[in-house]
Design goal:
Largest sheet: 13 strands, antiparallel
Radius of gyration: 20 Å
CATH class of the largest domain: Mainly Beta
Structural class: alpha+beta
Number of helices: 7
Strand content: 35-45%
Number of strands: 19
CATH topology of the largest domain: Jelly Rolls
CATH architecture of the largest domain: Sandwich
Order of helices and strands: EEHHEHHEEEHEEEEHEEEEEEHEEE
Low-confidence stretches: 1-12, 18-23, 332-340
Length: 340
C-alpha cells in the first residue's frame, strides 16, 4: 500500500499522463480529504484564470500574466505564490533586462477531484520510503562542506570529520564540494516477494559554491548498489530568494533552495524526469540479491563540471521532504512502507 509518511497524512500532487488524440495530457487526481493545499490553490477565480492562461499560452512571466489578465502585478505575484505552494505550477528563473524574472508554467492539463475513495492496483504495488537526510551510512566529502538542522548549524563548517557527529540525524541541509554521501534503504520488495519493475528516487538538489551563484553548473551523479545510473547538471546554487521552507535564521547569503529531481530506473533505462540519461536498467542493479538498496549521491570528478552539491531535506528549500524512494513492483503484492 502506498504510504507517503507525510505529517498530518498530507499527500502531494501526483502527475499522471494519458494518451489522447491530441497527444499526451498531464492530469492530477485530487483526494479532497488530504490535498487541502491543492483545493486552496483552486479556490480563487484569479488563480483559475492564471491556470487557464498558462495552459493556453504556455510559460509566461509575472508581468505578462498581469498584462494579459489586466490585474496588478502584486495581485498576480501573491496568487502565483499560492499556486506554487499547491504545486499546481512550476517556476523557473530566466534572464530579464535587469536581473532575473520568474517564468511560470502550468503542471496539469486537467484536474479531477475524487469524491470516492481511490485505491488502485497500481497504488497497492508501490512501496514508498522517505529517508531522513542525516541518516547516511557512509560518506567521503571535501570542503566546502557542512550540515544544518532546522534550528542551527551542526558542528563546525568545512570540517569533513564532523560528518560523523551524532547530531547529523537532525540534518535538513547537507552540502559539500567533492565526494559523496550514501544511504541504505530497506529493500521491502524482498519482504513481499515481488520483483521491482521500476525504482524511483526524488530529492531537491542544487550546485554548491561559497555564497551563491545562479550560474554555477555542477554535474551531480547517482549510484545505486555501486552502479552509476546517471548524471544531472545542476544550473546553479540558488540564493536569489528565500526558500519556502528555509528557516529565517539561515542567512540569505547561503543556499536557499534547489530543484526537485526525479530519477527513475526501469526496464528501458534510467530517466531524469522525461529525459533518458543512461542505459542502466533495474536488471543491472541486481536488486533481488540485496536486502538493502544503497543510494550514493555525489560528484564524479571524471565528469566535466564538479561544482559541488546541496541536498535539501525537510525544513529547508522549496519542497518539504527528505529523500524519497519508490519501488514499483511487478505482480500484485501486499506492501508495507514506513519511515526508517
Amino acid at each position: 500500500m502506498l504510504d507517503r509518511s507525510k505529517p498530518g497524512g498530507a499527500k502531494a500532487p501526483t502527475r499522471r499522463k494519458a494518451e489522447t488524440a491530441d497527444g499526451v495530457r498531464s492530469f492530477l487526481v485530487v483526494d479532497p480529504e488530504r490535498q487541502f493545499g491543492v483545493l486552496r490553490g483552486l479556490a480563487s477565480p484569479v488563480r483559475l484564470r492564471i491556470l487557464r492562461l498558462l495552459r493556453r499560452h504556455g510559460p509566461l512571466n509575472v508581468n505578462s500574466i498581469a498584462e494579459a489578465l489586466d490585474l496588478p502585478q502584486s495581485t498576480i505575484a501573491s496568487n502565483i505564490q499560492i499556486l506554487e505552494e499547491a504545486e499546481l505550477i512550476e517556476t523557473t528563473l530566466g534572464k530579464a533586462s535587469k536581473g532575473q524574472q520568474k517564468i511560470c508554467a502550468a503542471r496539469f492539463d486537467e484536474i479531477v477531484v475524487r469524491l470516492d475513495p481511490e485505491e488502485t492496483s497500481r497504488e497497492k504495488n508501490v512501496i514508498e520510503v522517505e529517508m531522513p537526510l542525516g541518516l547516511y551510512t557512509s560518506y567521503n566529502v571535501a570542503a566546502p562542506c557542512g550540515l544544518c538542522s532546522r534550528e542551527n548549524i551542526i558542528g563546525v563548517l568545512d570540517v569533513p570529520d564532523l560528518f560523523l557527529d551524532p547530531a547529523r540525524v537532525q540534518a535538513a541541509l547537507i552540502w559539500f564540494g567533492r565526494g559523496y554521501v550514501e544511504y541504505k534503504f530497506p529493500n521491502n520488495a524482498k519482504v513481499v516477494g515481488a520483483p521491482v519493475e521500476t525504482l524511483e528516487f526524488e530529492m531537491e538538489l542544487s550546485s554548491e559554491v561559497p555564497g551563491t551563484n545562479t550560474n554555477w553548473p555542477s554535474d551531480i551523479s547517482l549510484w545505486v548498489n555501486e552502479v552509476k545510473v546517471g548524471t544531472w547538471t545542476s544550473p546553479g546554487d540558488y540564493g536569489d530568494q528565500r526558500g519556502k521552507f528555509t528557516p529565517k535564521w539561515w542567512k540569505l547569503e547561503g543556499s536557499q533552495y534547489g530543484i526537485l529531481t526525479s530519477w527513475r530506473i526501469g526496464p528501458q533505462g534510467t530517466f531524469l524526469g522525461d529525459q533518458k540519461i543512461s542505459d542502466v536498467t533495474t536488471t543491472d542493479l541486481k536488486l533481488s540479491e540485496h536486502h538493502s538498496i544503497r543510494l550514493r549521491i555525489g560528484i564524479d570528478e571524471a565528469v566535466g563540471r564538479p561544482g559541488g552539491v546541496n541536498i535539501f531535506g525537510r525544513g529547508f528549500g522549496n519542497h518539504n521532504q527528505d529523500i524519497v524512494m519508490r519501488l514499483h513492483l511487478g505482480n500484485r503484492a501486499v506492501a508495507i512502507a514506513r519511515k526508517p
